[in-house]
Amino acid sequence: MRLDFIIKHSIATRVACLVASLPSVALAVSLQVDIKGVPPALANNVRADLHLQQATTEEKLTETRIRNLYQLAQEQITATLQAKGYYHSKINGNLTKQPGATSDQDKWLATFVIDPGRPTKIQSVNVAVEGPAQNNKKLKPFLATPKLVQGEVLVHENYEDTKDELLANLNAAGYLQAEFRQSVIEVNRNDYTAQIKFVIASGPQYTFGKITFVDSDYPDDFLLKFARFRAGDAYDLQKLMDFQKNLESADLFSKIRFDPLNDLENPKDTVVPIQVRLTRKPKNRYTGSVGYGTDTGVRGSLGWLHRRTSTPGHKILSNLYLSQVRSNARVNYIIPGSKPATDKYVFGVLGQFENFEELFSRKAEISASKIMKRGKLESMYGLWYFTETFQIATALPTLNRKYLLPTAKWVWID
């Protein structure tokens, strides 16, 4: 009997140990968050900032984690509503455990009923500048706050964006050391209004230094014509961007890189030298095409663009078009004006031949024109001389005409 008891006790102990060593079966936990009482857009903002909402996609979600995040939820919702201008919100929350689809599932539902209350609106926006920039009348457009408007609902995101834009605008105007001395929102909870105040220390206005060109086949005096500024002028980011755009429009360079060389770590160094790296486009560009049309038959074209470096900015542009009924050849010689970004002279010659059933025409043309662009207005003044020999019908005689045609054209481009 004693031996039998010992054997049974040993077996029971081993079975108990074996059961204890088996992994426990984890329940599948799911979570749903329901937000009521606010418009969909505001509800989406709340969800985006709510950690409890983000936890709904976690694979190993536990009851403990759900309860911990639920305790934080009301504080997070309040912060989100205040960021959108709602400082008088009321939030009622409820967390319940619901039966799952099977016995090994736990389903949790967090419900928040939100009364956002009356929104807080902007009563005033005041932007003050201290330092050398306070007497700069040209700065007024740079200090606008289009995202913060009196009478509109206070949105903190717009406030932060405005701070960034104010500094960026001052930097663009040459005040590269600008910084905020004060930036505050004063909310009056009693009358649902907010006063916003910015005080900016401008620091000195920087100036452009010398412009140097690297890896360029063109002389500096030609390239400087594309710039609207010179060394010693007040630094202006827009002028620098226009300089780059002008060089791009010249169709001379495949790559353009600007490197301001100022040491921003040294507050006493307020001169910004500009280094421009240019990669020249190939001197020659060739184009061609072949096709067929029911009105022209077989047709083809050839084009050649030659960029001259010996005479900077000068170009030769030629095109040849051939078909069974019409052929022409045109050559234009283009010379940049004193403002090469906007002005140019074009000298051209054209030879054209047409033969449509009974219509026959042979024309030669010589032209000279000047094209200028001032803001949105593009002007063209020119003189055309052409001679044409033509026959309208085989039964009619062949005629010849010569014309001298002065031309003016204005185009408004918006």
Order of helices and strands: HEHHHEEEHEEEHHEEEEEEEEEE
* Percent strand: 35-45%
Biggest sheet, in brief?
A: 8 strands, antiparallel
Give the tally of β-strands: 17
Distance between the termini: 109 Å
The averaged pLDDT comes out at 89
* pLDDT < 50 runs, ≥5 residues: 1-25
Query: What's the arrangement of strands in the largest beta sheet?
Result: 10-11-12-13-14-15-16-17
- Percent of residues in helices comes to 10-25%
Q: State the helix count.
A: 7
Class from helix and strand fractions: alpha+beta
Radius of gyration: 38 Å
Silhouette: elongated
Feature tags:
single chain, 414 residues, alpha+beta, eight-stranded antiparallel β-sheet, three-stranded mixed β-sheet, 7 helices, 44% strand, elongated, disordered N terminus
Give an overview of the whole structure.
The protein contains 7 helices and 17 strands. The protein has helices at residues 2-21, 40-49, 51-54, 63-83, 156-172, 220-223, 237-249; strands at residues 28-36, 90-99, 105-115, 121-130, 179-188, 193-201, 207-214, 253-260, 271-280, 284-293, 297-307, 315-323, 326-336, 344-356, 359-374, 377-391, 399-412. Helices cover 21% and strands 44% of the residues. The longest helix is centred in the first third of the chain and has 21 residues, at 63-83. The N and C termini lie far apart (109 Å). With 414 residues, it is an alpha+beta fold. It is elongated and about 100 Å long.
